[in-house]
Amino acid sequence: MEDAVVTPSPPALELERVVKSFGPVVALRSGSLTMRRGSIHALVGENGAGKSTLVKIVAGLYRRDSGELRLEGESVDFTSTSQSKAAGIAVIYQEPTLFPDLTVTENIFMGRQPTDRIGRIDRRAMRAEALEIFERLGVAINPDRVVEGLSIADQQLIEIAKAISLDARVMIMDEPTAALSGFEVERLFAVARSLRDEDRALLFISHRFDEVFELCDTVTVMRDGSYIDTLPIDETSVDELVSLMVGRDVTEMYPKLPADVGDVVLEVEGLTRTGVFRDISFSVRAGEIVGLAGLVGAGRSEVARAVFGVDRYEAGSVRLHGRPLPGGNPRLSTARGVALVPEDRRKQGLVLDDGVSRNITLSIRSRLAKWGLLWSGLENEAAKVWASRLEVKTAALDAEAGTLSGGNQQKLVLGKWLATEPKLLIVDEPTRGIDVGTKAEVHRLISTLAQQGIAILMISSELPEVLGMADRVLVMREGSLTAEFSRDEATPENVMRAATVAQEVSR
């Protein structure tokens, strides 16, 4: 008797040569992706590569112009997000969209609450199912607590629980770890693996290669709106993925240009804010890049905000070129030559509904105004200079900032502050959430600014970025400075030891 022929099951989700345009702009030229059950598949590419457009087509937010979209081998054409969800597809975004004033359980079952035999909402059944899902995921979240106040990580887990309750077989995680701590990332990864082991198909979109290689088994690369290649994780490398993403070899991710280090620009002495940071003292010289490293929650951003004047401090002093810089006055700091590129560019750095030109000139409007009036011609002329120098990719100067990619939004924030001609530039997480090619551009810009004599204080959670760019590295742990290293002394081992083990900085 001959052995029966086993027909392989079709992919859980398959896109083939999908095209999507918005007027004259082609967002997706040829999007292809194959996801299989029991697998975690990575999708990588530069900002603007077409990843988000592809995901929105799968989620039912956009309809494709052409190409094939198949679910379990069957052709589908979603015209709404509800159709996509009903078909078993769930998207977990970087910023969850939950109802903050409702409980965890109510959010999971919103719009489809089970009822008892007389038509009342069966809250006991809802709660029991929510508890069972969290138990399966191995996480402890109180189903009765209100969502408001929960961490981003917990909110993402609620979104995952909602997807499981809908029996989603295809789950897409779009930059889910961007705002998570190390422990929260590990917990999310454990949940993702448990979902994979339940024979679900997962898509993981991230700019963090270490996470891609730790979690995923297959990776698809996109570039300029087109599919480039799909590779098994254990048969590729970071260098190969970078080359595929940018279409060229990126041999120098951290272009450190030679710079003459001059006089002290910034002096911070004994800066203290109760419960946040204490006795912080350091200096930054002209032409020098000082990296501020440490784990999430160490107090780095809070120190930067205090130096700039956004937040007040209770003790200590800040001096700029030897002159005292009073706290709590960011307007004065700006006038004296200090600029702060904040950690959250969308909430703190840009007016998303305003155009490119308006955002770049936000900090220099008083300089551009004539007779108390702001002329759009002068505004556009000033903005054009920085948009060109920073190579901001935009269709027009009046294009809304919110429509630009993450990398181009970061360039807008940099341009806004560089237009003030600062003497001291504080950059907090300068490359968070942007692709590898744009990262290299931002690094080159920072290095060029230092070469021009600007003093730079750079805060980053990416250790390779700190080690690659900084002339000196300061390390914070739990609100205190624990170490200071020269460029030669700043090894990954030394920095991580100082960030995790209590010790006193030696000066």
From TrEMBL:
Pfam families hit by this protein: ABC_tran (PF00005)
Record's subcellular location: Cell membrane
Record membrane topology: Peripheral membrane protein
Highest rank taxon of the organism: Bacteria
Entry keyword annotation includes Transport: yes
GO cellular component, one term: plasma membrane
PROSITE patterns reported for this sequence: ABC_TRANSPORTER_1 (PS00211), ABC_TRANSPORTER_2 (PS50893)
Domain ABC transporter: 13-249, 259-503
InterPro entries reported for this sequence: AAA+_ATPase, ABC_carbohydrate_import_ATPase, ABC_transporter-like_ATP-bd, ABC_transporter-like_CS, P-loop_NTPase
GO molecular-function term, one example from the UniProt record: ATP hydrolysis activity
This protein's UniProt keywords: ATP-binding, Cell membrane, Membrane, Nucleotide-binding, Repeat, Sugar transport, Translocase, Transport
Protein name according to UniProt: Sugar ABC transporter ATP-binding protein
